[in-house]
Design brief:
Helix content is about 70%, strand content about 0%. It has about 290 residues and is mostly helical. The protein has one domain.
Length: about 290
């Protein structure tokens, strides 16, 4: 990879890591379902200037529901259930493990022996994190985060079957899917639908965080990531995503002073080792161009 593209790949991953911090600030003024809806309304704004990818509407809607709606709705609700941002950034990336498991069961893509070992290590780490539940961390928060990761993994496997598509155009068009179910959930939970009042009462840091999530972390970051995936083999690009949870943990420590006990810290390290193993020890398909977001 060119040095400039290496820097861009790292910046995108750091952008996604910092998004976990922005989420904490945004949720100070918006409910989880409102934040999901508003985030993707912003992300879908370039829709009028981008042609729809040549995929069926049913596939586009299914992908939007799993890759975006489910992933972020569960994640945002997990914050309200006591999930710390730093731990969330690590637990969310168990999607790489779930992606491999689903691909093996559904698509018959059998992982390598080394990948299976890496998955086992990650699940041992996940067990340690479950054993550390207490204080600010709840079983509900952790399970909601893992549900979001599972939704992301299902979306990844749908994405595998699309073939070659324009990644930026796809991400923009997928962004039209989450607002409707998100606002429907918002209505069911009795959230205010006075959008003007909601924005007027929101703090400046919440509004800036919303803009960061909708425009920078979604549209801009995926535009760069999509170009990298269309330029280089996926095996060269996807490992850079491992910087995201690292950035999330460091940012949460610096901003919120989030710290971890020995048990939880050891679990997080094992999860990261396992996730890194599933990404780095997979089949080397140097000539293929991939779009997998795992």
């Amino acid at each position: 990879m060119k040095p400039t593209d290496v820097i861009l790949a790292i910046l995108v991953a750091v952008t996604w890591g910092v998004a976990f911090i922005a989420t904490e600030f945004a949720l100070q003024s918006f409910t989880p379902s409102q934040l999901t809806g508003f985030r993707f309304v912003l992300a879908a704004l370039p829709l009028f200037f981008v042609r729809k990818p040549d995929i069926p509407w049913t596939l586009l809607i299914a992908l939007g529901l799993f890759l975006f709606t489910g992933q972020f709705m569960f994640l945002f609700f997990s914050y309200k259930a006591g999930m710390p941002p730093g731990l969330a950034s690590v637990a969310t990336h168990t999607q790489a493990l779930f992606t491999i498991i689903i691909a093996a069961l559904v698509l018959r893509e059998i992982p390598t022996t080394k990948q299976i070992s890496a998955v086992a290590i990650a699940f041992i780490g996940l067990g340690l994190v479950f054993a550390s539940v207490g204080g600010e961390l709840t079983y509900l928060g952790l399970c909601l985060t893992l549900s979001g990761a599972l939704s992301w993994a299902v979306g990844n496997n749908i994405l595998k079957r699309l073939g070659h598509v324009d990644m930026l155009a796809l991400m923009i068009w997928l962004s039209i899917v989450p607002p409707l179910p998100a606002f429907a959930v918002s209505w069911l939970f009795g959230d205010s639908f006075d959008l003007i009042a909601t924005f007027q009462n929101a703090s400046m840091i919440s509004l800036l965080s919303l803009g960061y999530l909708g425009i920078v972390s979604t549209t801009v970051a995926f535009a760069i990531w999509g170009r990298l995936l269309n330029t280089y083999p996926a095996v060269m690009v996807t490992p850079f995503a491992l910087f995201a949870p690292i950035a999330g943990v460091l940012a949460s420590y610096l901003v919120f002073g989030e710290s971890f006990g020995t048990l939880r810290g050891a679990g997080m390290i094992l999860i990261m080792i396992g996730v890194a193993g599933t990404v780095l020890l997979g089949p080397k398909r140097e000539k293929s161009k991939g779009k997998d977001l795992s």
